[in-house]
Amino acid sequence: MQSLSKTEEDLMNHLWKHEKAFMKDLLDSYPEPKPATTTVATLLKRMTDKGFVDYKLYGKSREYFPLVKKKDYFSKHVNGLIKNFFNDSASQFASFFTQETNLTKEELEDLKKLIDSEIKNK
């Protein structure tokens, strides 16, 4: 799977929220200052070429939809991150993540519950 640029990822997030959307819906979901229509059109073209997005044609209007689930995209990224930056060590990643992200005690407790639950399920 190829990766998306930061601006493509941003647009993809809007599309994941909508599940399917016309250009107008996507533009409306951006905060001010909104990107130019041509910019969004170019990004959508690139993302279609990369296999992340497809569309249905209704007359001249295109309704775009994601071909990749958000969870799948980000799990691939996180796994790549662990492999490339943390010597393929999940514990090195977890150590970095918990120490460098300023998590509250409550957030750390929630993480611990998630991990304990996963351990039970394995």
TrEMBL record:
Superkingdom of origin organism: Bacteria
Annotated organism of origin: Bizionia arctica
The keyword Membrane is assigned to this record: no
Name of the molecule in the record: Transcriptional regulator
Biological processes per GO annotation: negative regulation of DNA-templated transcription
Keyword Transcription regulation annotated: yes
Keyword tags: DNA-binding, Transcription, Transcription regulation
GO molecular function list: DNA binding
Record-stated family: Belongs to the BlaI transcriptional regulatory family.
A matching Pfam family: Penicillinase_R
